[in-house]
Write a structure and sequence with these properties.
single chain; 6-stranded parallel beta sheet; 13% strand; alpha/beta; 252 residues
Length: 252
């Protein structure tokens, strides 16, 4: 079935690189990474449900977002791809690479998919109340691609779900199961809603992943914060893509 955001297109030359967006982001955010890599790659971008140019849906679950990766690749005629995910998209990329070792050429995880039980440290009911309080501003942010066409309740539940997925007992086995070359590009400093050194404690969890799985390494820790990493450190992300692609080529 053709996904709602993309018509089928014939396969194009170049190594397919699929970019998976952050939670409220659109495919537009990848433009600097794409320009840095250049036209010799086959860049595949899309908007997740209710983001950017995509239609709304009855299902915004994480499982559906991972399944949509297959739909996008099928629509683009790509049997294998190197997946690059930022923030929420890094979780989706890690899950997809873990379950598709024969189709994943590798993965680049940009400041996301870090196993840490942060959801246990916050007030979940408070998160729901926060999104309800923010509901008035979301329509104002949608025209500039900074908010999805989701209700406050849907946004809250989606954030809670990713917190549950990020728990060590949930994400750890997924990362341990990855057998393709995977590189982290981690930011520094805070992210929206984080407090104190919370974000750095979350990032520190990646070191235990690297110790357990030789397929995974930290490619770089950059000076950007979580929100501006694609804009300020796109060169480091592009370099990680090149490294992962070369490792895949050597294994073929």
């Amino acid at each position: 079935m053709t996904p709602p955001w993309q018509s089928p297109t014939p396969a194009a030359p170049g190594i397919p690189v699929l970019y998976i967006n952050g939670h409220v982001a659109t495919q537009h955010h990848w433009r600097r990474v794409i320009a840095e890599l250049g036209p010799q790659w086959r860049h595949i971008t899309y908007d997740m449900r209710a983001r950017g140019k995509s239609r709304t849906s009855a299902d915004y679950s994480f499982a559906t977002n991972v399944d949509d990766i297959d739909a996008v690749l099928a629509a683009r005629g790509a049997s294998r791809a190197l997946v690059v995910g930022w923030s929420y998209g890094a979780f989706a990329a890690a899950h997809w690479a873990s379950r598709n070792p024969d189709r994943a050429m590798g993965a680049v995880l940009v400041d996301g998919a870090q196993p840490h039980d942060w959801i246990d440290e916050i007030d979940v009911d408070g998160m729901r109340k926060l999104w309800r309080r923010l509901s008035w501003v979301m329509p104002l942010l949608r025209p500039i691609g900074m908010a999805p066409r989701m209700t406050a309740e849907q946004m809250a539940e989606s954030n809670i779900e990713v917190g549950e997925i990020a728990r060590e007992r949930e994400l750890g086995p997924v990362l341990d199961n990855i057998t393709v070359a995977t590189r982290y590009v981690n930011a520094s400093g805070s992210s929206l809603g984080s407090k104190g050194d919370e974000q750095e404690r979350i990032r520190a969890s990646v070191h235990t992943v690297v110790e357990r799985n030789p397929s995974i390494e930290i490619h770089a820790k950059v000076t950007s914060n979580h929100g501006n990493i694609l804009r300020k450190d796109f060169r480091a992300i592009a370099a990680a893509v090149r490294v992962v692609s070369e490792l895949d080529r050597q294994q073929q």
